[in-house]
Amino acid sequence: MALVDGHRSRQVRISASVGKRTVLVAWAFIAPAFAFYATFVLVPIGMSLYYSLLRWDGIGKAQFKGLSNYLVVLSESDFLQILGNAFQLVVYFTIIPVAIGLGVASAIRNHLGGRFGATARTVLFIPQVIPLVAAGIAWSWMLASNGVVNQALSLIGLGSITRGWLGDFDFALPAVGLIGAWVLLGLCTMLLVTGIARIDPNLYEAAKIDGATAWDEFRWITLPGLRQEIGVCVTVTVIAALASFDIVYIATGGGPGLQTTVPGLEIYRLAFAHRQVGLASALAVVLMLLVIVCVLPIQWLTRQSK
Amino acid sequence: MTAKRYIQASTIAITATVIATGVYAAPSCGTDPVVLNSYFETGFPLPTELSKEFTKQFPNVTFNIKEDLFQTLMENSPRVLAGDNPPDLIRLPSISDLVKDGLLKNLDDYATAFGWDKYPPAQLAQNRVADGGSPRGEGSLYAMGLNYSMTGIFYNKALAAKIGMTKPPETVAELEDLMAKAKAANIPPIIIWNKPVVGLTFPLQNLMGSYGDPGAVNDWIFQRKGANINTPTNLTAAQHLEQWIKSGYFQDDINSVDYATAMSRFIGGQGLFLFNGDWESGNFDKQMAGDVGFFLMPPATAGGKHAAMSAPLTYGIGANAKNADCAAFFLNWVATNDAARKIDVAVGGSNPGGPVDLPMPAVAPGSVTEQTLNAGTTIAKDNGAMDFIANATGAIYAEAWTPTLQKMVGGREDAATMLKDVQDEYVKELSR
Asked: Any idea where the domains of chain B sit in the sequence?
């Protein structure tokens, strides 16, 4: 009995020491990546949180201000309008590319292997390759009062509605939204086309034999099959909308009025042009929380579907 | 000569110099090699041209030049000045915040040594800052202008002839009459930009100068206690601007037109008037030689005083700059040396400032540059120089003037609300 006990306790000791070593090895593997993550993500977030409690111009003496910067961000009508603009952009940055991407993916599903499929995929992916700044510049030329868009409208007899789209109070935000939709369409299409290629073709065949219409196939096979890819598309595009900067900065500079000013642009302006590091950090923290609040449910829904 | 006698002789010589000039010998670049660490603005060749001429005259001095766009300068200057190797010479977009943080060298001693304090006071006023960063316009000197810009109205001579404009307008009413005639003749009356930052501050401030006291506008810009932009005369000015918008004197897409587009429209002959400054005079003399005229914004009533925005091309010295003396010597040289003043006018297009007794460098007769330089004399006589309302605080341009004036163009805000919004933002910023 004593012998058996001794054997067992040695076994426990051995497994404990093996376990300890495994943990150490695991930490050793994690450490380099964690060090980077901590240095470039966690520490900056922590510093932003700290700065958001200060009144500071980035150089001189800082004053502790408690939560007053947050109060300004969450109560002043200008800031609320700026946050609202970001949510309006979600409509354009997310819904349009995902919807069109789904349509394109379904349409070219049967021709994926052929030359047509490859060409279509390349053409649709090109916007993703173009830098956002270049896209912003090109689109602001096209949307100018003598740009291609207005020339085309005049050509088809719609000269009366031409205008400087990016300087118009009603159309500037939708115009910026469309630039974003155009850029993100490539990413969504590529993800969805790749996803649709992984759906078992037998499912479509069986559905056809059962007399399913194209809509039925889309509704009951394509959509459920692409749920994870749609999840990724929606997550990425929602973040792109809420944290947008480049396109707005280039195309409109936030105008006219505050019509297209988004949090990303305002954070940059506050921190570097206006030297209000505290207020900029508070807005950045609020933006980060908003992104998390919007993205978590999307992630949760996609996981549920597994 | 023994050492003792040498010292005695030197002391006598120095004392004699001090007595003769009334000041201690001014700082200089010496004879040892000096490299001036310089931070200039991209797109403006003037400082670089001046530095080449300076090296020609003082071969021991060379320049290590770094350039950035205006906006980048604005964002980087505090950090560059706070760094290990602060610039000896730096283009300064605004100085109040930098003075508050102790990043700029106080130039009072240099002003005494070089005699800058004998220049017309208005020349240096905009570069004076009180202790603590405000108000501006008084206190110690923290920067000097390489030259002094002048603003007003450029016009296309061919289009002016078409509507029968034979001489510049003498009152605002005459100017408005010309605009109405142009509009009736299908000629866009005013070319302006209004994105990403507004150009409408130019006509607006011109109107403020016509209907009110330019000194009061300066008080507001310099953050003097109790200053308010929302005054009855400024409201009259803003209402005129609003009327210009409603009358279609500006093209209806200006909220989507940037500076470069506006300039190419004017140079392309697409409009009669352009509210802008003499930094474009050289450009017009080259690209539209003989086709462009210039006049100052007319007063409200005939024979009244003229006012215009005019600001120094501001350069300062880092508080901890290694070659501060040489940099100050360079700034003094720019204002007083014949060759430098010539470059200043030929390349920069603006008044070189400096002592009143120095002659203005010659320019081509009939050129736009000549007209804008002459305008400077009128403004000096009428004491009508104003700084720019966009410079009142670091954020007022982007946070108040730009959105409110864009709203006015879009019909979303009237003159009274616009001025109220700007004043509210001003008070808010000064309280932060």
From this structure: 25-148+312-361, 151-309+371-431
Name the CATH architecture for the domain at B25-148+312-361: 3-Layer(aba) Sandwich (3.40)
Residues of B in contact with A163 (CB under 8 A): 252-253
Task: Enumerate the residues of chain A whose CB falls inside 8 A of the CB of residue B403.
Answer: 255-258
Chain centre distance of CA B275: 15
Residue B17 has pLDDT above 50, yes or no: no
CATH match for B151-309+371-431 among 3.40.50.300, 3.40.190.10, 3.20.20.70, 3.10.690.10? 3.40.190.10
Residue A213: C-alpha distances to residues A93, A199, A202, A209 (Å): 30, 18, 16, 10
Cβ-based burial of B33 (10 A; exposed 0-12, middle 13-18, buried ≥19): exposed
pLDDT tens for each residue of B126-145? 999 998 888 999 999 999 99
| pLDDT for A99 | 95
Instruction: Kindly report, residue by residue over B47-71, the tens digit of the pLDDT.
Output: 999 999 999 999 999 999 999 988 7
* Separation between Cα atoms, residue B426 and residue B223, nearest integer Å: 9
Q: Which is it for strands B61-68 and B312-316: parallel, antiparallel or unpaired?
A: unpaired
Q: How far is A260 from chain B (nearest CA, A)?
A: 11
Which one, of B189, B372, B392, B359, lies nearest residue B271 by Cα?
B189
* Contact flag A164-B253 (C-beta cutoff 8 Å): yes
Chain Cα centroid distance, residue B102: 23
Q: Give the separation between CA A91 and CA B216, rounded to whole angstroms.
A: 47
- The reply to whether B25-148+312-361 and B151-309+371-431 are identical in fold is yes
CA neighbor of B91 nearest in space, from B151, B121, B28, B48: B48
